[in-house]
C-alpha cells in the first residue's frame, strides 16, 4: 500500500512495472539461471517412439544426453550449432535426453554422465563420446557418419 508521502507518479510507475514485468514459473526461473537454457538447434526431445521411427528410416541420429546446468553441454551445443550452420545439407536428427528427468534413458544408453553423445546410423551405433568438446573431432565424426549410408 502506498503512503500519502509517495512521490507523484509512484503509483503509475508501480502499476507499469507490475503489468510489464514477465512472471516466471519456478521451472522457468531455474532455467533462466542455468548455464544454458535450451540448446538452440534442438528441435526434438527424446522419445522412444521417435527414436525407433528414425532408426527404421536409417536416419543419422545424435542422442545428446544433456543438462541445463552443465558447462560442457553448453560448449557442445555451441559446436553442434556451428556444425548445423556450416553443414545445412547434413540430415542430422538430434534427440536430447534430459539427464535430470529421463534417468531410464540415461541408463538405457549407458551414459556415465551428462555431456554424453551417441551417434547412430539407423540401428547401428557409430560413435560414443563423453565430454567431447573439440569441434574438429565432433565435426569429423558427424561428417563421417553422414557419408556412410
Topology, pairings included?
Layout: H1 10-20, H2 26-32, E1 44-45, H3 48-56, E2 60-66, H4 71-86, E3 92-98, H5 103-108, E4 116-121, E5 124-130, H6 135-147
Parallel strand pairs: 1-3, 2-3
Antiparallel strand pairs: 2-4, 4-5
Share in helix: 40-55%
Low-confidence region ranges: 9-42
Strand content: 15-25%
Question: How would you spell out the order of helices and strands?
Answer: HHEHEHEHEEH
Quaternary state of this entry equals single chain
- Structural class, please? alpha/beta
Beta-strand segment tally = 5
What is the alpha-carbon Rg in Å?
21 Å
For the largest beta sheet, what order do the strands appear in spatially?
A: 1-3-2-4-5
Summed up, the helix count is: 6
What's the pLDDT, averaged over the residues? 79
Largest β sheet strand count, sense and barrel closure: 5 strands, mixed
Could you please describe the fold and organization of this structure?
With 149 residues, the protein is α/β, with parallel strands linked by helices. It has helices at 10-20, 26-32, 48-56, 71-86, 103-108, 135-147; strands spanning 44-45, 60-66, 92-98, 116-121, 124-130. A five-stranded mixed β-sheet has the order 1-3-2-4-5, with helices on both faces. A hairpin with a 2-residue loop joins strand 4 and strand 5 (124-130). The chain is globular and about 30 Å long.
Amino acid at each position: 500500500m502506498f503512503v500519502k508521502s509517495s512521490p507523484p507518479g509512484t503509483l503509475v510507475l508501480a502499476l507499469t512495472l507490475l503489468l510489464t514485468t514477465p512472471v516466471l514459473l519456478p521451472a522457468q526461473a531455474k532455467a533462466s539461471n542455468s548455464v544454458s537454457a535450451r540448446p538452440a538447434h534442438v528441435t526434438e526431445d527424446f522419445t522412444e517412439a521417435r527414436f525407433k521411427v528414425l532408426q527404421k528410416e536409417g536416419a543419422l541420429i545424435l542422442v545428446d544426453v544433456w543438462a541445463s546446468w552443465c558447462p560442457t553441454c553448453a560448449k557442445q551445443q555451441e559446436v553442434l550449432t556451428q556444425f548445423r550452420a556450416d553443414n545445412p545439407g547434413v540430415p542430422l536428427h538430434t534427440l536430447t535426453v534430459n539427464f535430470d528427468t529421463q534417468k531410464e534413458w540415461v541408463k538405457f544408453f549407458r551414459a556415465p554422465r551428462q555431456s554424453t553423445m551417441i551417434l547412430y546410423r539407423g540401428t547401428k551405433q557409430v560413435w560414443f563420446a563423453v565430454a567431447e568438446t573439440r569441434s574438429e573431432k565432433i565435426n569429423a565424426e558427424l561428417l563421417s557418419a553422414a557419408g556412410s549410408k
